[in-house]
Automatic annotation (TrEMBL):
Residue intervals of the Helicase C-terminal domain: 148-322
Taxonomic lineage from the root: Eukaryota, Viridiplantae, Streptophyta, Embryophyta, Marchantiophyta
E.C. numbers: 3.6.4.13
Keyword Nucleotide-binding carried by entry: yes
Domain Helicase ATP-binding: 1-106
Organism: Marchantia polymorpha subsp. ruderalis
Molecular function terms from GO: ATP binding; hydrolase activity; RNA binding; RNA helicase activity
Protein name per UniProt: RNA helicase
Protein origin, superkingdom: Eukaryota
Length: 578
């Protein structure tokens, strides 16, 4: 539109808003930010048209937003809602939003209203044809198959860049290293490969490399997670290699473990991936699975995230929006009652809900923070322990994907860099050391480079910390420092994450989750990986062949019973029961 960003056109994301009140007419924002806006403006009265894009991704916040927009339209029939999707079942969404048979009283709107029976519009894309090739037999390793397929394309196919879909950073790094090793053995005069990784935790500078054309005589190979499926479009892609897998979040309400696991993609996702090869010219998609697997084993659509996620933050948001009877909320795809009950139990345990499932004073405060409820509880608990300054720093550090650069074969260097800041109390205090060292280095990019720290992530941490500090001050809480009292900091971390407490097993090589009894291990990236503290609390779980605790801090049974006497009971030998 040839206007300055933040004037007529702006954007709003978590911890950052670039708009001008009274001037901005079009605003791009995440669905989570729009839901938070409803806390101050329940009917979204500032907007006349809301467009929800990429709705087929079916994230938790997208599903919640669709339910809330349907509720708002009953009070504001003049509000236009556009749901845009490449693969979503339009008929089911139209049925969900069809309120034409309901009687809605309209008193304040005098203009002509839109038809309350939704219209479905199909826009034919201008993508080119994509020829799909399947594996004749199931592959034993999609990592090795990705490498061999890339080399075959490079040897036999005309010019054109290659996009490989893998599951996560570890797989991406493995394929990048293998391809670079193979490329070193190419004949001197043959075309070379420019192999580049792409995943969410990559630095901004490294992410931007994938959009630049390769030098003449070289073929670009992008090795990516599913971030390239819908989030970004990379020019020049002619060949796609699809592993058939992706990392997805799954929550088990029986064990109370919320984890990222590698799972088969859906046919809808497979079509999205293949479509990336036909943006510029006719392309080819090489699927590392059989046609029989595609037709008979893959689900038509990805299971909505709302049906496989921990709902603690979702339930809190709905409560904060005044929706008390969440069991009757109008869902596009209803979540399980077990997950809903677990969420209510935890919110009650951390003091956010009272016995009538109403928000407490603490609950209203927790809802103000753009953090998960346990982390917000940690920040708010810091006031009584006189370490609010350290708590907002820890929360900011945990809000970014990773402060460390990708190892890319430099794992020993990365371990050495991390050890410079490591302390026996765990990752949270280690993060404090990194942040304070970053400030002492005057936020130097060179210092970050020398210590294998992601400079852009640290700049984000600084900005997030400022906003969290401002929120605390708005609640009347003054920032205080512990002045080196590590015990106060650990007690504050325990106050927020006591529901994620684990005890060392008698064998000494694993932990038992207090709530649910799941066997857990400390993740290799933790500074506590080679130690065995008796009690720990942790922030999140990662699942591969084991359940790994990430961002781990030492704890103590005395602290657990002190900060959550309603949750834990004392028993002999200072142990805590499930």
């Amino acid at each position: 539109m040839r206007v300055s960003l933040g004037a007529e056109v702006g954007y709003s994301i978590r911890f950052e808003e670039v708009t001008t009140p009274g001037v901005t007419k079009i605003k791009f924002l995440t669905d989570g930010v729009l839901i938070r806006e409803m806390m101050a403006d329940p009917l979204l009265s500032r907007y006349s048209v809301i467009m929800v894009d990429e709705a087929h991704e079916r994230s938790v916040t997208t599903d919640v937003l669709l339910g809330l927009l349907k509720k708002i339209q009953k009070r504001r029939p003049e509000l236009r809602v556009i749901i845009a999707s490449a693969t979503m079942d339009a008929a089911s969404v139209a049925t969900f939003f069809d309120t034409s048979a309901e009687r809605i009283k309209v008193s304040s709107v005098t203009e002509s209203l839109p038809d309350r029976k939704p219209a479905s519009i199909t826009v034919e894309g201008r993508s080119h044809s994509v020829r799909v090739h399947y594996s004749m037999d199931p592959v034993s390793s999609y990592v090795l198959a990705s490498v061999s397929t890339t080399l075959s394309i490079h040897k036999m196919e005309p010019a054109g860049d290659i996009l490989i879909f893998l599951t996560g950073q570890d797989d991406v790094d493995a394929v990048v290293n293998l391809l670079n090793t193979e490329a070193e053995n190419f004949p001197r005069n043959s075309p070379g490969l420019l192999v580049l990784p792409l995943f969410a935790g990559l630095s901004r500078a490294d992410q931007e490399l994938v959009f630049r054309p390769a030098a003449q005589g070289r073929r670009k190979v992008i090795v990516s997670t599913n971030i390239a499926e819908t989030s970004v479009t990379i020019p020049g892609i002619v060949y796609v290699i699809d592993s058939g897998f992706a990392k997805q979040r799954f929550y088990n309400p029986l064990t109370d473990v919320d984890a990222l696991v590698t799972a088969p993609i859906s046919r809808a996702s497979a079509e999205q991936r293949a479509g990336r090869a036909g943006r510029m010219r006719p392309g080819k998609c090489f699927r590392l699975y059989t046609e029989d697997t595609y037709c008979n084993d893959m689900k038509p659509e990805t299971v909505p995230e709302i049906q496989r996620s921990n709902l603690v933050s979702t339930v809190l948001q709905l409560k904060a929006l005044g929706i008390d009877n969440i069991m009757r909320f109008d869902w596009l795809a209803p979540p399980s009652s077990e997950a809903m009950i677990r969420a209510l139990e935890l919110l009650y345990a951390i003091g956010v809900l009272d016995t009538d499932a109403k928000l407490t004073t603490l609950g209203h405060q927790v809802a103000e923070f753009p953090l998960d409820p346990m982390m917000a509880k940690m920040v708010l608990s810091s006031s009584s322990n006189s370490c609010s300054s350290e708590a907002v720093t820890i929360a900011a550090m945990l809000s970014v994907q990773s402060i460390w650069v990708s190892s890319k074969g430099r794992q020993r260097e990365l371990d050495d860099a991390r050890d410079q800041f490591a302390v026996v109390e765990g990752d949270h205090v280690t993060y404090l050391n990194v942040y304070e060292s970053f400030l002492r280095a005057k936020q130097s990019p060179q210092w970050c480079h020398e210590n294998l720290i992601n400079y852009q992530a640290m700049k984000t941490v600084v900005d997030v910390r400022k906003q969290l500090s401002k929120l605390l001050q708005q609640l009347g809480i003054t920032l205080k420092s512990s002045d080196g009292d590590i015990k106060c900091i650990l007690k504050t971390v325990t106050a927020g994450f006591f529901a994620h407490a684990a005890e060392l097993e008698p064998s000494g090589d694993s932990y038992k989750l207090v709530r649910g009894g799941q066997q857990m291990y400390i993740h290799p990236s933790s500074v506590l990986f080679r130690t065995t503290p008796k009690w720990v609390v942790f922030h999140s779980v990662m699942v591969t062949e084991r359940f790994y605790m990430r961002d781990v801090a030492i704890s103590d049974p005395e602290w657990l019973t002190e900060v959550a006497p309603h949750y834990f009971e004392r028993r002999r030998r200072s142990q805590l029961p499930s």
